Description:
- The complex is a heterotrimer.
- Chain A contains 12 helices and no strands.
- Chain A has helices at 3-31, 52-60, 63-94, 100-109, 115-129, 135-160, 163-171, 176-187, 189-205, 208-212, 222-227, 237-266.
- Chain B is globular.
Amino acid sequence: MTAIGTFLRWAAIALLATFALFPIYWMLVIAMTPTGFSRSLDGIWPTVFTTENFTRIFAERPMTRWILNSVIVAGLTSALSLLVGTSCGYALSRIRFRGAGALMLLLLVTQMMPATSIIVPLYILFARVGLLDTMQGMVIGHVSLVLPLAIWMSKGFFDRIPSDLDGAARIDGCTRLSAWWYVALPLAAPGLAAIFIYGFVTSWHDFLFAHTLVHTPSRWTAANGIVSFRGEYFTLHEMQMAAALVFAAPVIVIFVLMQRWIVEGALTGSVR
Amino acid sequence: MNHPFLTAVLLASSAVLAPSGTARAEGQLSFLVVDYDAPGMGQWWQLLVETYQSTTGVAIEPRNVSARQYYERLVLETASGTAADVLTVNPNNILELVAGGHLMPLDAMIDAAGLRDRIVPGGFDRLTVDGVTYAVPITGRTLELLYNRCQFEEAGIAAPPTTPQEFLDIAQRLVVVGDDGRVVRFGANMVSGNEDPTYEMLLMWSIAFGGSFSDGQSNFTFDSPPVIEALEFMRAVYDSGAVAKGMMESDLRALFATGGAAMTIDGSWQFPFIQTNNPENFACFASAPVPWDGPSTGGVNMALAVNAKAADPEAAFAFIAMSATPEMQGRFSDFSAYIPYGVNALTDEQRASKPYLEPFLASIGTAHPIFIPGHQDDFNALWPIVVDAVTRTLVDGVPAAESLAQAQSEAVACCAN
Amino acid sequence: MITPRSRRWVAPGRIGRGWIWFADGPGFPLLMLFPSLIVLGLVIGLPILRAIEMSFDTLNLRRPANNGETGLHNYLRLLADQRAWNALGLSALFMAGSVAGSVGLALAAALLTRRVTRGQALVRLTFLIPWTVPAVVTALVWGVMYDGNFGVVNRMLDSAGLGPGANWLIDRRTALWALLAAQVWNEFPMSFVFLLAGLMAIPTELYESARIDRAGPWSQFRFVTLPQLRPVLAITVVLSMIMGFKAFPIIFVLTGGGPNRATETLTVLTFTTAFRDLDFAYAATLGVLALVVSALMVTGYLRLVARLDDGREVT
Lengths: 272, 417, 315
């Protein structure tokens, strides 16, 4: 690549990176502004700093409880979606049956109904079954959000793994189940990481289920907690941004650890 | 392990099915409450719950909901039949709750407890439907003129405005523009966003010009001269550059509290906020009666009602009645900036320590309701119509008479009796 | 050589008893498919069916007089409802803008990132960061940035000499585009991940042979990159379409559908119909409309892509 080419590439990257990062920078600016003053911030570089918002959110609200709840719910969601999604994806990949294509499309269609239309019947259903205001209910709700994409993606991965490999395992005496568990899954491991991350992030950010299905404050997740700063009369933007940054931290950690796997995982196992 | 897969499934399902989190507080009475854990009003609610629990031994399960989600949760819970025993309600939503059969009539229990005399006269008015009372008022609020004395002094203005024209003039004088042409400080606040406070703003100025949104017979009067004058006045203020355009109401409040605007027409909750977040300048902030000859808007803000399906209505009502006891009413002002509805709730000491409450206390009895009498259950249909009319005039420049004529016909179409 | 850990050796084709029926016999599809179908069927399927059922009902909590009446009346009302068709149009417009913006941006970012040798992890992470912020917070921070007087967007335009910026969320000419910018910002990382992975899966030999044929960068893009990327691009666009059509928090928090319905998409209208007008049956009808339109758009798009695939040559 020519020097001009490289320079242009880096200039373009810098431009896009500015677009991607500037709002985060602004979140930080707001979070470090004394409460109430962020509305009248002028200029790009703030002049008054304070860290009181970060301490206040932990002192005035049960932030650690919220983060813990989110970690538990998101962790369970991603683990369960992984388990259930990959088993379904494997079956759809290996077993030829009519209507598989239609089923895949139906999976996508489940995502298309606006949440508002589903929320009242869902609330009533969960109330009847006794899942209202429970962590389990939230997990099941989140799993239903993640599952369609998990199935779709894992079917894709398994399609790329030649079925001769699990066939060989079966000839050696494995059950189909073991072939799935011991052969197919490890080969699709990078893809599993991608599904795990997608599930974790979706559950972490979800506000609809977390807020509608759970009302005890001790069971609130991060998403609920952030919104609680919007009061009836005042919105405590500064503390809310501080909370949002704190809540983004675990997600960023997951990204940093797994970002290699995300990229390799979305499409994998192609060259064998 | 012979069957690792099976183990994994068992582990996963036990994680899912096992009881989670902290042990659930088995309450005998559930209570839908707004902002239970927030400082201020929330602390008074907590005191009420503790007092009730310790005196009667009946446990309360508070269902905390944040103010923004309150209405949604109320709708969801009542629609699905899982509503709490004691419900926080307000005059805006009480009609639809009664129409749905969700509330228990309270007249007998109120009279038995002698509550009528302990509540400020007129307190029950807006909570009574067809002669039957369904809720007990707890808090009220009105909106008065709030202004920044220090900024007034700096600009050489001696007194706050007492007429709409003075309001506009003073607001224009108090604008401070920076070197870059951007406003550094606005003269006043005026809500104009796509939210229901804009409806109340037009209502207030309509009252200022001698009118209202309806006549004595519940007919809509959106196209009457006072309302048109009010909207034209709002347009003059908007165009003068003295107010911030397009900010949400909660942000405008923060702007005033931090010195970004010199005047506003708002409630008493501003003062605790200023005390917490702008304490060095707290002495600059003062209140005055609204800049017109007439009532303020407001009234009952929160009331407590009993769910028609409550298992133990007596216990539920006892909880409500406890809020009206002198002990609880006496502590109210220590926590909350609202106006309590108990008779003589504030001691002289409390009044002296909070001089800013005077205009609010004076106006609570005569406050003009926000909803339209006779159309309480149409509030959610009417406010978007009004706000659309305001937006048409302020943002799109449609003449006020035209905008309001359209609002009138839309209101009649949707909600005429 | 795979060592079977299972003690029971079952010859293929033999139907056994007990759990073997599931692990290896005809029960296997059942075991694998059942959990997913149960969860999805109950949690999503049932409510969708109930919502469809509600759309034929009357359930208005504000005017309960006619509650319980069934029939096609909601659909007849929908046909005549100008506001709903407006909302549908806005939803489609918003979706198109959101797909074009986020997929376009993501593709550009992916193309730029893949050739970076040193510090690629950092660049990837940078483009992933907007994904760490939930939609509501995105809306709030962009709301502050867009403020007409104090907002940093206008301040930056001032210093760049590009004149006084508009009141982005109030002016009906700019409101939708302002919302799109925030939506694209929040959404493009997801497309970025898929597209980057798709790009990295393209075998380098294809590029080498193209270079040997003296194809310049643009030809390489047209004849190597695009065709190889087609399946991933298709799924990325489909997902982006679904998310763009369903977009809610950013629109609702920033403009609430205003000014005067200029940004009232179908999702916003459905929400206000349900939770402001308390007309749940009609809200369900609008939901069914959204479902049908999304399904049509996605199937239409996938058919189009399939037909294009057949017509084109793949290197």
